[in-house]
Amino acid sequence: MKEVVIGFLGCGNVGGGVWELLKGFAPEIAHRDHVSIRVKRVLVRDVTKARSCSVPPELLTTDPADVLYDPEISLVAEFMGGEQPATEYMLTAMKNGKTVVTANKVAVALNWHRLQAAAQQSRVGLYYEASVCGAIPIISTLMTPLQANRIDKLMGIINGTTNYILSRMYQYGEDYDLVLRDAQKLGLAEPNPASDVEGMDAAYKLSVMASLAFHARVPFKQVYREGITRVTAMDIACGKEMGYVLKLLAIAKRDGSTIEVRVHPTFLPKDHPLSRVDGSFNAVYLHGHACKEMMLQGRGAGDMPTASAVVGDILQAATAEVHVHPTFANTAEPDASLTFTDNWKTRFFIRVSASDAPGVLARVAGCFARENVSIATMMQKDAVEDGRVPLIFITHAAPEQSMQAALRHLEPEICRLESVIRVEA
User: Fold this and answer.
1) Of residues 98, 105, 205, 247, which has the active-site annotation?
2) Residue 63's closest CA among 83, 85, 37, 82?
């Protein structure tokens, strides 16, 4: 039986979950894969800290060299998170001939080109299934089964925290701040939730997924990002009344050599498959020229779902005769033949507070018409506050820049812009 000796970089919740899975699943691994996994060293910040997992104290170390330079260790599993020092540790491990498995979407999104180059130069593996969507096998799906497709659209709910918040707001009409506090108490949101609620987490993941889907490097800096912090219960209630569900969507589309990548709150028709993905679940919906529509759904976050994906990568790495890497030009900058656009075409939900006076609606509609933005649906709410009433518009599909120009024409003295939310079909 083949023995694979591995080292951990970090041992937080995910690392602890990987330890427990490897320990508890060892007989099945030996039977099915004829592999014995032995964890030799575990890098931690504090060896005296109490841990929920059963890692023996004698394996713990605070010296990265004990993992990175041990010749017996052939595989390193990284659970530190963040760009640094995780990236440099992984580069060092690969330069020393060690395959790397990581759940670190930040390091992969920002330094993928460096990591892949180091892996290929040393002829080792770089595995990162767990960096996107936890237990959902989206990375391997894009790399292998869907290689015979030209994927032109990908939309995903890829952050469990924001999906939980928006689901609660939709179901119970609760305000954002209240639901966020509850999510933090339940451990579904970090004490500092900025990476999730401002869309950073989803943008890192979208950079990786879009690169694989379009077979071209899509750098993180090209991803437009807008979070959910300005979403109100009124927006969600109005959308619900008009037949829409609000999600924080990661959207990637390709038309020839033109690519758009964006993360923002998005209204979807209530019968869209992604509209039914609630709570902390994740899902990715895509379209390929051969496979047509497809959706993968499951636990996209959490200690054990993520640990499951890491252990899957460890086993794949341990049994692979040849390590496979993406074949597109993985460089810091995208290929010169590609164009990244910020003038995508979509529908819009517009909510304004307008003066309750004759002729106001016509003047507002005229602002849209000046930029060739046509209105598909309009709703006026009865509530009057300070002589103003809420007006809600759903437009036909229009270019982003035309919509922004139309909004600049609105006259503040009669019409105050309250919300702009994009709508996808």
Assistant:
1) 205
2) 85
